[in-house]
Amino acid sequence: MDRLRMAVIGVGHLGQHHARILANLPDVNLVGVVDANPDQARAVATKLGTTPYECFEPLLDKVEAVSIVTPTIHHHSVASAFLRAGVPVLVEKPVCRTVAEADDLIALAKKAKVALQVGHIERFNPAFEELVKRPIRAKFVEAERHGPFTGRSVDIGAVLDLMIHDLDMLLALVGGKVARVSAVGAVVFGGHEDMVNARLEFENGCIAHVTASRITRHPKRRLRIWAPEGYAGIDFVTRKLTLVQQSEEVRKYGLRVSEMDQVTRARLKDEVFGRYLQVLNLDADRKHDQLTAELRHFIDCVRTGKTPRVTGTDGRDALELAERVLDALRVHPWEGTPAGPHGPGGLPTPAGFLFPPIQLARTEAA
Ligand code: NAD
User: Fold this and answer.
1) How far is CA 206 from CA 164, 178, 341, in A?
2) What is the pTM of this model?
3) What are the pLDDT digits (tens) for 232-251?
4) 83-106, pLDDT tens digit by residue?
5) Distance from the CA of 197 to the center of ligand 1, in angstroms?
6) What are phi and psi of 202, to 5 degrees?
7) Taking a C-beta distance cutoff of 8 angstroms, is the pair 115, 88 a contact?
């Protein structure tokens, strides 16, 4: 099989991993890496034995597929140039800065008849892959995605940076349209919202509470689902899936506590999980790397013409829902009236310090 000629555009924090994985795939020829920062392009290219570029234009007619990992504001300009040249594109999430830009990429990919995949990597998390194999009709969902401030992706806020992963998974899992969105969020460091909580009401009756924060000390990424079929919990960090369902007896007759003798009743607390509510814990294969799985899937789609697991339309729909969350948090009135402070940047003036500010030495504070 001929090696697929590929390039990575943007080899910063994440893009260098795309490049490293592609450079090590036997059926790929990484012909170059591009970065607007020439030192970064050179450093990554030297490590991987490929050619550095400062701009992508010389590669337009040299590659058969491309992975775009620039900051989001550049996704549309870079991806549209490759799609116009008939090159299949894997573009990181969020697909673009606006739905209009995403629609444009979808139309270009359709016209060129090439794959457009969006990097919603959690869809390749083995715990999520296990979950979607099962007949679960989510009715109440809690999604939490918390991490510390990294100083990266500051061109966007917590909704487009973090929450969009959960919005994409919710749309894939729950299906149908979202009827109503309400949200509250706050800017802590300036610029965009750093923490957000949204409530989504789906037309099919499912309610989802989604929280994202990029100013939390201890990372947490989890999804909890209640459904008529049972409960599912995913820890995306440890990649564990926990499933709980009623035993056949409980499903048929309920838990007939009033008919139980004293001894059985006394044991109930210890026996409820296991006997009446059955639990299955699934751990991911430690060797499974989801970025490798995502890139391999893209290459397979390019070679075979299969539709990517996360299409341009999926990326667009997640972005549209993210924009609805952003619209909702922009109008949130902090003091109950639209005339008062509102929106993520319009927090009321603090009433004071919670404790006396700690004075740091100048060098420590710098
Ligand atoms: P980063 O700032 O570390 O890296 C971006 C790199 O792109 C930088 O080296 C920059 O010099 C370069 N660049 C900027 N403009 C360019 C251009 N026009 N052409 C070529 N190179 C250019 O950012 P990052 O954290 O690696 O994020 C990159 C993208 O990946 C963002 O869209 C982000 O949302 C996404 N991301 C996705 C995930 C995920 O879980 N799927 C995680 C992190 C980041």
Assistant:
1) 18, 9, 31
2) 0.94
3) 999 999 999 999 999 998 89
4) 999 999 999 999 999 999 999 999
5) 25
6) -80, 150
7) yes
CA of 14 to the centre of ligand 1 (A): 6
Alpha helices in the chain (DSSP H): 15-24, 38-48, 75-84, 99-112, 126-132, 158, 164-174, 248-253, 262-271, 290-304, 312-330, 362-365
User: Amino acid identity, residue 278?
Assistant: Q
Question: If DSSP codes are grouped into helix, strand and coil, which group holds residue 183?
Answer: strand
Q: Mutate which of 21, 37, 69, 72 to test ligand 1's pocket (most atoms within 8 Å of Cβ)? A: 69
- Strand-pairing partners, residue 161, are none
User: Is the Cβ atom of 318 under 6 angstroms away from ligand 1?
Assistant: no
Within a 10 A sphere around the Cβ of 110, how many other Cβ atoms? 13
Structure tokens at 322: 């993210």
Rounded to an integer, what is the distance from CA 354 to the centroid of its chain?
34
Q: Is the CB of 37 under 6 A from ligand 1?
A: yes
List, for residues 295-331, the tens digit of each pLDDT value: 999 999 999 999 999 999 999 999 999 999 999 999 9
pLDDT, one tens digit per residue, over 115-156 is: 999 999 999 999 999 999 999 999 999 999 999 988 887 888
Query: What whole-number distance in Å separates Cα of residue 28 and Cα of residue 327?
Result: 42
Angstrom CA distances, 29 to 98, 297, 322, 323, stand at 32, 16, 36, 38
* Local structure of residue 333 (DSSP, 8 states): B
Cβ of residue 9 lying under 6 Å from some atom of ligand 1: yes
Pair 5, 85: CB distance under 8 Å: no
**Nearest-5° angle of CA 115, CA 120, CA 124?**
95
Which DSSP category does 280 fall into?
A: E
- The reply to whether ligand 1 has any atom less than 6 angstroms from the CB of 7 is no
Residue 289: Cβ-neighbour burial (10 angstroms; 0-12, 13-18, 19+): middle
* Spatial separation of the C-alpha atoms in residues 94 and 319, rounded to whole Å: 7
